[in-house]
Amino acid sequence: MIRNPFRRDTARTRAIEALHVRINAGARVPALYLDLGVPDTVEGRFEALCLHVVLVLRHLRRLPAPAADIAQDLVNSVFEQLDSSLRELGVGDMGVSKRMKKLAQAFYGRAAAYDAALDAGDVDGLAVVLARNVLAREDVDAARGLAAYVAAADAGLAASDLDALMAEGPALPDPSRFAGHPARG
Fold it and tell me: Which InterPro entries does the record associate with it (predicted)?
């Protein structure tokens, strides 16, 4: 029997889908919305998902092979789910492609902004981009707790290996620990 080169390994597909589900669960923790101010809206949930996917992708970039392949499969899974969600909402084919392009631009723009701030260790800069993108407001002080959470999540992920990530999902801190994070002056 000839193996179809375009067909994915089903065990790998299931593993990627399980990782995606775990990331989604991390992005839906109520404390993100109740304690850290992420708006509980469709846009807010998209922003929280993007943020958590970016954190996992950052970690995967630090790991040896096959992490790069897993990262690409994860991005594909996330965008396939977004496409499916738009279709379930009744968006037509032409509308889906236009919206998917905008979502992809938003995702990659946010990834670049979060990466730059995290790579520089700039928690204040991270708070600025999180205030604008995730909280949809210019109040940087309101985003300080979220920025501290993101920095802690990034550091925690850096300490895990690929096997743990795939088996258990991302080890994320409790967002409620960062509620009322003191403002910097």
Answer: Ubiq_cyt_c_chap, Ubiqinol_cyt_c_chaperone_CPB3, Ubq_cyt-c_CBP3-rel
